[in-house]
Amino acid sequence: MLNNKSNSITNRLKLKLISLSFLIYSSVFCQEQGETNPIQNPENLTVFPVDDIASIRSQQTISSSALIDFVSTNSALTSWSQTGQTLSTSDPCVQSLGRRLTSGRVSTPKFEQAICVTPLGISLYYQPKPIAQGKFLKYQFPQPGVGINYRNFEAQTGLFNRTAGTDDLLHMDIVTAHRNLNGKLSVNIIGYDPAIDTSAQALNLRDNWVDQSTRQITGDISLSIGDYNGDGSLDILIWADTSTGTSTSTSGRIDMLSFSYDSTDRTLTHVGTIEIKTAGKPASIVSTSGDLPR
Q: In whole angstroms, how far apart are CA 189 and each of 26, 169, 199, 209, 278?
């Protein structure tokens, strides 16, 4: 009798362990990797994130601009599908001849949103595919830039704040750098605020910094975000052409400025500037960040 009872307890314990192991297996290996797998191949590459390619193009006139999303349909990258959304005529991105495109998980961490950057401000396209119809959130710079030079403004995104917002989601911030109306470097941290009560969702300024020195932006601006000192926090590096000569000058200058951002206090701090002498005025400045070989 005792043996039968012991066997019964043992069997029930085994069943519980089997059930528990199944639950653990399900939670670990059955994570949702996206609604659809954009690459259809036998190996089913859903373990890794698969990127789309976005582009903005105009047909005949700039007012007919469209945001096009390209998705690979095979693993050899020889076949692509595309979907598009026509941009609204009220979109600042449509109204500017100079524009650049970046992306980030700003309004939601569930998918990347395209971000159009102009000398006037930014437009965030927050709708998911396939229902996206050009709806956007905009933010206009307090001191916008002028002209059609697409090289003296840039934006990048980064997860500076790892605390969930009021909607219980993580949101990336947008860092912008541009030449303002006075020719000065202006740096902005722009954050997303979810809809709450009677307030609609919006992009709002967290903090900004404007160069108060005598230097003027005379060429390109480039922006990169990364953890450059290994302290676990993102840093901001900006390269700006502040040369005083012309394109035929035999000397030039690039200022490399570093910034830190405290997402709790929402304060942007200029850490320092390094002056880089060049053999002539830079024709262009581009930058990127990554774990490059040393």
A: 40, 19, 21, 9, 30
